[in-house]
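Here is the promised in-class demo. Please do not try to memorize the tokens; focus on the logic of going from shape to residues.
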């Protein structure tokens, strides 16, 4: 610990952000990093606790607080303070294969468990991680790590999302030959087509894939296993196969005529269309699902719903409303929600901040759902909403609370209900109650030489958990292939 009293001397200072009314005119990341001297002060705030809860991943009341990757946070915070970027990078990469992803899209479970957060503001762990990895890329520290020897074992990874990439990276570094099969035209999974550029520029993903290719990982795009590629051929030609296809089956509202109504879309399709158009057509009119001059209603109060709010604003929507079934969280911690539990408090994210700045009101409406659609000649014109409450864990509609909202575009961001079944079906893998691939508890092994990881294994979750799953699955695959493992 380099600065024993750093947490007493320096206050938390976050990266600055471009003003909402400025940034809504483009799709670029909008955080402006601190300079090196200021970042060193933020590293100095780390207390080097005797028990570093920040890296513990404690499960309390069904929710995790602390880093699931068990990142060595106090160690690399100390190296930031001391001005040792290469040492900080070495400690970060020991546990985290893709810090450029997690430092952008992870909700910072580490900071929620930071001991500084008991009485003051927690350490800027998230932004410190971003500083380390981006400085490393900028200064030429991120060079290809090419294995010196190869094991002679071949592994197929199905899916190039964070879990598949994490498994491929770790197994390749072990010396196995890894080929990744991805049905889309680019790698990244939902990081590529489900998370907007404002949170994760796609050049960041491309940069990592280029590095993995140099290290020996082979990628096959537009390769849809179970449709254009036969599962049996992969099982025959590879020593092990990992299913890491995600959980992309969207949750429906099951409204009458929902599938027949023009103007109703799932969030994953809406966001994907914008990202694909930005990459291929520079958002050319007619190449994406547009919210321009439309009254938009978004169902879902989570991160994806917020991303849809921000995207619609950049399209030039007339209005945007975000509907959430659950009650509004408290603005401050309740007495029954003490540190280091995950803070169950109201968060106003970047999209909602932009809506407030543009339309002068928070777009969110709580304890509400869509009751029915109002259409005209098959086109959506409005939605009828109704207030709801939970009684004995059952959703109950409140009589007399119905309202009609103008709506030309309805976006359903209600999460996912599991994986698409055609790929696991092709491998004769069984699906469980959560519509995920079944394995023994604590294992990633399906049967024979077949394994699974990520959302396809655990259900819809965070990018950081997908990376954890990929790394742990890789360890089990290595044990299967070699009879032992040093991973």
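The designed amino acids, position by position:
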């Amino acid at each position: 610990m380099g600065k024993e009293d750093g947490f007493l001397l320096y206050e938390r200072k976050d990266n600055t952000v471009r003003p909402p009314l400025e940034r809504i005119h483009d799709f670029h990341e909008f955080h402006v990093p601190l300079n090196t001297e200021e970042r060193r002060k933020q590293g100095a705030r780390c207390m080097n606790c005797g028990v570093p809860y920040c890296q513990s991943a404690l499960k309390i009341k069904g929710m995790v607080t602390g880093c699931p990757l068990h990142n060595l946070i106090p160690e690399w915070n100390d190296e930031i303070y001391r001005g040792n970027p290469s040492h900080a990078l070495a400690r970060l990469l020991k546990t985290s294969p893709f810090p450029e992803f997690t430092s952008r899209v992870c909700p910072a479970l580490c900071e929620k468990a930071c001991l500084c957060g008991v009485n003051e503001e927690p350490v800027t762990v998230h932004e410190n991680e971003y500083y380390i990895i981006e400085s490393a890329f900028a200064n030429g520290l991120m060079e290809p790590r090419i294995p010196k020897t190869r094991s002679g074992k071949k592994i197929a990874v199905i899916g190039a999302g964070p879990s598949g990439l994490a498994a491929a990276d770790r197994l390749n570094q072990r010396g196995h030959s890894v080929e990744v099969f991805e049905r889309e035209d680019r790698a990244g999974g939902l990081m590529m087509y489900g998370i907007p550029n404002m949170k994760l520029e796609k050049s960041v993903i491309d940069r990592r894939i280029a590095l993995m290719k140099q290290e020996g990982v082979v990628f096959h795009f537009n390769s849809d296993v179970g449709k254009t590629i036969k599962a049996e051929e992969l099982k025959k030609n590879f020593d092990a196969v990992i299913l890491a296809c995600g959980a992309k089956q969207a949750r429906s509202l099951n409204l009458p005529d929902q599938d027949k109504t023009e103007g109703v879309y799932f969030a994953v399709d809406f966001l994907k269309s914008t990202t694909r158009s930005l990459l291929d057509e520079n958002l050319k009119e007619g190449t994406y699902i547009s919210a321009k001059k439309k009254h938009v209603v978004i169902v879902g109060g989570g991160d994806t719903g917020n991303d849809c709010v921000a995207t619609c604003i950049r399209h030039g929507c007339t209005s945007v409303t975000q509907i959430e079934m659950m009650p509004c969280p408290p603005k401050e911690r309740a007495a029954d929600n003490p540190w280091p539990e995950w803070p169950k408090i109201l968060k106003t994210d970047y999209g909602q901040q932009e809506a407030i700045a543009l339309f002068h009101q928070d777009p969110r409406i709580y304890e509400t759902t869509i009751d029915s659609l109002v259409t005209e000649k098959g086109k959506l014109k409005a939605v009828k909403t109704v207030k709801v409450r939970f009684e004995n864990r059952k959703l109950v509609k409140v009589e007399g609370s119905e309202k009609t909202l103008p709506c030309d575009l309805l976006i359903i961001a209600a999460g996912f209900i599991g994986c698409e079944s055609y790929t696991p079906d092709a491998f004769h893998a069984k699906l469980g109650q959560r519509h995920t691939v079944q394995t023994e508890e604590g294992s990633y092994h399906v049967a024979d030489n077949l394994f699974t990881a990520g959302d396809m294994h655990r259900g819809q979750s965070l990018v950081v958990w997908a990376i954890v799953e990929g790394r742990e699955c890789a360890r089990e695959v290595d044990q299967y292939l070699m009879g032992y493992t040093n991973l």
